[in-house]
Fold this sequence. Notes:
Helices cover 50% and strands 0% of the residues. By secondary structure, the protein is mainly alpha-helical.
Amino acid sequence: MSSSDPRQPSEEELRAAYEAELKQLRVEHVLLDNVVALINLGMRRTGLAPGTEQERDPAQVRMAIESVRALLPVLEQAAPTQIGAIRDAVSQLQIAFVKIGGQPGAPSEGAGEAAPAAGDAGPGPATAEPPQPPPGKPGEPGPAQRSGRLWVPGQ
């Protein structure tokens, strides 16, 4: 930035504008922005939207779900008018997670896990995928539909 250019704000003007924004900012707005970002990123990581197939990452989807769920009690107090929409969005993300083959009930990587058991490879990327149930016949209900229950991560 040049001090001789009248169109460019000075560093002091930028700092003052930033301080004015911070005075107006509320924690619940930041929480809501982050929850929306987590839900949007989680949906993108399902790889279900056209053009996102290569981005599929069930571990990231699970982390997004668990993170939003951890914030729900705080949001119920801080933003009660938006909690219904947030719960609906998390439900849709959970359904998408199951559609991509996410395993309900398994803990997120690094979230509440104990040290690796004897015989585990230890740190580093995991190479083995969890066992997958055999695919059903087309038109038959899947395991989630047959149970008649909605899976909720962490419960």
